Amino acid sequence: MLKIKRETYKQIISSAREALPNEACGYLAGTSDTITHCFPMTNTDASPEHYSFDPGEQFEVLRKTRDLGLEIIANFHSHPQTPSRPSEEDIRLAYDPNIAYGIISLVSEDEHFNLFRIKDNKVIPEGYYII
């Protein structure tokens, strides 16, 4: 089970809301099982249905996490108009079974955030709690 710092959780949600009507995306970093940092990135697709990281920003975030002694624990993106579960495309593009995949749904007034592990096209919910 993962832990997410309350302030980091708030950053995840606010980045999703700020990206509307498009999907937000980024990395979540920390140490061991605790997510302490949110690194929102530009969705170069500028789409409400898909996302792609900006390669330059992605490189900078990876460098910054290394410099801070952090590790990438998860990536995240939002679903502005669909539930908080991986789409077929999300499953197909999940390339790293060692990280979690976070999805924020903004379908209702109250956002829904879930984490998943995706390995060999199998989706396994990942529990978390806010600290």
Report on this structure.
With 131 residues, this protein is of the alpha/beta class. It has one domain: Cytidine Deaminase, domain 2. The protein contains three helices and eight strands, in the order E-H-E-E-H-E-H-E-E-E-E. It has an eight-stranded mixed beta sheet. The protein is globular and about 35 Å long. The model has no long low-confidence stretch (mean pLDDT 95).
Strand order of the largest sheet: 7-6-5-4-2-3-1-8
Instruction: Tell me the structural class.
Output: alpha/beta
Shape, please? globular
**Range of strand content:** 35-45%
CATH class identity: Alpha Beta
User: Remind me, CATH topology?
Assistant: Cytidine Deaminase, domain 2
Question: Number of DSSP strands?
Answer: 8
In a nutshell, what does this entry contain?
With 131 residues, the protein is of the alpha/beta class.
Q: What does the secondary structure layout of this molecule look like, with pairings?
A:
Elements: E1 2-4, H1 6-19, E2 25-31, E3 34-41, H2 55-67, E4 71-79, H3 88-93, E5 100-105, E6 112-119, E7 122-126, E8 128-130
Parallel strand pairs: 1-3, 1-8, 4-5
Antiparallel strand pairs: 2-3, 2-4, 5-6, 6-7
